[in-house]
Every structure is written in structure tokens, then in C-alpha cells.
Amino acid sequence: MKLEPGDAAPDFTLPAADGTTVSLEQYRGRRVILYFYPAAMTPGCTKQACDFRDSLASLTSAGLAVLGVSKDTPAKLAKFVERDALTFPLLSDPELEVHKAYDAYGEKTMYGKTTVGVIRSTFVIDADGKVEKALYNVKATGHVARLRRELGVD
């Protein structure tokens, strides 16, 4: 079931690239951009992560935290963070439990072929833990700029 605005955002606790654990509950009282991406260090995912990195100051100023989630191991995520100087938490969900809770894993069409995998998705979660925006099948390029426009972030 795809999440809709107003739904309770599924809570989670996941290991981060830096060895800590991060839970959605830690961010209660703040708005969160939670995004799911297929694989660290691939071209599209790198573009998207770097766009979030480059926009982080304005997003933070607007009261938004950014969390990225993939099925990669914390060790691979740590390399991604270091290689691209990423400045927000990247979380590891190798069992895909959180992906599935957000309906960010399943059937998708790539190049006209139906496959099963990670669905590039972004959620804006409000300070009370409710879904404000649920965006599925987003494009890596231009997504952060579109999100900033929709959220009124300069």
C-alpha cells in the first residue's frame, strides 16, 4: 500500500554509515525528508545524494532534516559518505523492511521491462510523524530542485 499524505510514517531504527543507529522517533518535532535510493555510488544515486548535500544548508534552515536509505551495508555507505563528502545520515536497510513499510520496494518498470527492486521514493514527514508528501518513482536528476520548489525552500 502506497503511503498518502496524512498517514502515520512507519517508525524505524536503522544502522547509519557512521556506526550509530538512527530512528525516525529521534526527529519528532522536526520535518524530515526521507529518501530511498537503489544503490550507493551509482551515477543516479550519487547525483541525487550530492544534490541533497548541496541543498542541505537551505533545507536545514527551513527546518528540514535529510535521511537517505538504501539496502547497502554501513561499510559501503561509509565509503559513499567519504567519497562524496555527504553531510547527512545514510541508513542501511539490507533486509528491506523499512523499504517495504514505505512501499519503496516492489515491481517497477525499467526500460520497458518489469522488474522487482528499490523504487526511488521520497517522503516528507511532518513534525508529528505524519506523511506530508509521498513521491514515488522520482527521477534522480532534478528531484531535489523540484522538492525545494514544492516545499518553498530557497
UniProtKB/TrEMBL annotation:
It comes from the Bacteria. InterPro entries: AhpC/TSA, Peroxiredoxin_AhpC-typ, Peroxiredoxin_BCP/PrxQ, Thioredoxin-like_sf, Thioredoxin_domain. Its EC number is 1.11.1.24. Keywords: Antioxidant, Disulfide bond, Oxidoreductase, Peroxidase, Redox-active center. Pfam families: AhpC-TSA. The keyword Oxidoreductase applies. It catalyses: a hydroperoxide + [thioredoxin]-dithiol = an alcohol + [thioredoxin]-disulfide + H2O. Gene3D superfamilies: Glutaredoxin. It is an enzyme of class 1 (oxidoreductase). Residues 3-154 form the Thioredoxin domain. Transmembrane segments: none annotated. GO terms for molecular function: thioredoxin-dependent peroxiredoxin activity. Belongs to the peroxiredoxin family. BCP/PrxQ subfamily. Monomer. Thiol-specific peroxidase that catalyzes the reduction of hydrogen peroxide and organic hydroperoxides to water and alcohols, respectively. Plays a role in cell protection against oxidative stress by detoxifying peroxides and as sensor of hydrogen peroxide-mediated signaling events. This is thioredoxin-dependent peroxiredoxin. It comes from Streptosporangium amethystogenes subsp. fukuiense. The gene is bcp.
